[in-house]
Amino acid sequence: MATTIEDLMQHKDYKKMHAAASEHLKGMTDPQLLNIFDDAGRKALYAGDGWAANTIRGLVNGPDAYGDHLRAIAVSMLADRPHWLKYFPAEFRSGIASRLN
Question: Among the four 43, 74, 84, 96, which has the fewest Cβ within 10 Å?
Fold first, then answer.
């Protein structure tokens, strides 16, 4: 199990990361999810990572920014780019890490 942010961000198993992120996001409300992703996008922008900022914030500002569709896109993004987890709050990262087997 990944126990540090470095371990989590270097996770190479797409299926396990996808399953862990899916399980974690399933327990969140839409407003919670939107706030976390908006804040992460802003943090990426302030860090000078324009690609991450545009992609993350695009999730919450797009026409499909609600419900299961939002969760599916968010889960895929996190599984594809676990290194972007550095822009998310520690609680959020811990929730995903705790679900990795």
Answer: 43
The two three-digit tokens of residue 49, written as one number: 């990572």
**What's the pTM?**
0.85
Burial class (CB in 10 A: 0-12, 13-18, 19+), 87: buried
For residues 49 and 15, give the distance between their C-alpha atoms in angstroms, rounded to a whole number.
26
Cβ(100)–Cβ(7) under 8 Å?
no
pLDDT in tens for each of the 101 residues of the chain?
Answer: 445 555 666 667 788 888 999 999 998 998 999 999 999 999 999 999 999 999 999 888 877 777 788 899 999 999 989 889 999 999 999 999 888 86
Contacts of residue 100, Cβ cutoff 8 Å, sequence gap at least 6: 1, 2, 8, 11, 16, 17, 20
